[in-house]
Amino acid sequence: MTAKDNFTDICNLTTEVMGLEKGSLAWKSRTQELQIPRMVASVIARTEEGIHHSVIAEILNRHRSLIYHYEKSHKGNYTWEKYRNTFNKVYMAYKKIDDKKEIFINKPHMKKYLLSNGVFESP
Length: 123
Fold this sequence. Notes:
123 residues
C-alpha cells in the first residue's frame, strides 16, 4: 500500500469512529467537529506510519505547514479534554486494527498462511 492509501484508511477510520461523513476531513470547514478529528488523523499518520507531511496535506486539502503545526501542537492540545478524548478514541481503534495485522517472516511463510486459509494459487 502507498502512503496515500494508508492515510486515506486512517481518515476513513477517524470519520467512522467519530460518526462523521466519509471524506469530510478534506472539507474546508473549520468547525471543531471536523478540525479536531483532522488534527488527530494527521498526528497518528505522522507518529505511527511516518507518512510525509505533503501526502497528508494533499489528502486533507490543506497546506503542508499546517500538518507541521498539528504535529508540534499535539502535546499542548492533549491537555484539552475534547482533543484528548477524540485522540484516545481514534488511537485505540487504530491500535485495535493494527494489532490484528498479520506479520509474515518471508514470502514462503505468507504463501503457506494464505493457502491454509482457502486462497488458491493460480497456475
